[in-house]
């Protein structure tokens, strides 16, 4: 289907998008467990997500990634699909238990061979591969040994990273260590809403430190073994934290949300220290970060690019619905307040202006590190027609306004060099199973047929327009 779809030329977002330079990078993104399937083929062993999916009540309708989008078997046609969208970059993640079953020991030749073929296929179609080494699929054996709250996991990650880097570094320039360590630590070890499903706040804080340590160790080793043209970075998911009022309680709630949501990662990575106010907050709860001599220097290993994932921004109150400033455990209240904005199918408010705010803030508070938007997108309830085509006007408008927000931030001085749409195609959406669809390409999970949606065609045409300067 070849349909031309363009945004209204007079819209503010469209005018902003047209200020992006022809050199701006455009991509699509996926992750291994969400699309690959082949969960137990060619030597791959279980990850924490394979286990979590089989824990009753944790994933929507007991869904799992055993087949997902069957990308492992359909990779060449998926790469051709990527090429048809006109993007220049494909960000994908590598499955740790596929490459190194069990999380220790030698490389699995068959597993790593899949990514070797994928890189070659991409390059043959003039698409740059952008590797993410960890997108949440910790080998189950390492979780059994303690997982990310245990220091040894950071060293195991660095070993695994080198197995992949040694094989692909001759053809892959950009390397991201971790995707969204906040999710791994907080959703996985505190809230229990993602794998491994634990609920222990001190473990989550220890996981934060060891995830960052693993990033630093891997970055140091890859840079030492690499070449000057290699670029290394990390991807953080961030929003904005705005106080609901100017009250002390609300301002403190926003400060704490920003501290645990962003600064606890940004400060050690880019300043070599944890934020003092958050360290003090943790001390009040009798929790200490498990820092050893030399850790902060390792974590602050220089990076070449900061990946930014954005989905929404939030307003916070320091009081609960009854006016209390402390919760049942005696901790300060930190409650999100709805802003009255339209929401996606995830219930996330659509606030592109907050995206601009975040990017400008990052450029001012942490100058000198270029940014790439490594994920941005939205889930909506899709209704396919008889040809499986989806007129996803909501998603299309989301992209229009958010890419416009990126352009607006650039025009205010933020050094943003690329934008990758999440996601290439509908896939396994973690605890939501197959109930939520983020793809710009529809996947019929029964037949595995791929059909570009209206948003995909708009994205393709927008890229063409920006490159041509029209």
TrEMBL record:
Cellular component aspect of the GO annotation = cytosol
SUPFAM superfamilies to which the protein is assigned, alphabetical: (Trans)glycosidases
Leading EC class: hydrolase
Show the active-site residues.
180 (proton donor), 375 (nucleophile)
Supply the alphabetized keyword list: Carbohydrate metabolism, Cellulose degradation, Glycosidase, Hydrolase, Polysaccharide degradation
Q: Which domain of life is it from?
A: Bacteria
**Residues binding substrate:** 34, 135, 179, 311, 422, 429-430
| Catalytic activities | Hydrolysis of terminal, non-reducing beta-D-glucosyl residues with release of beta-D-glucose
InterPro entries for the chain: GH, GH_1_N_CS, Glyco_hydro_1, Glyco_hydro_1_beta-glucosidase
UniProt xrefs under NCBIfam families: BGL (TIGR03356)
PANTHER family from the UniProt entry: GLYCOSYL HYDROLASE (PTHR10353), LP05116P (PTHR10353:SF36)
State what protein this is by name.
Beta-glucosidase
Which species is the source of this protein? Crossiella cryophila
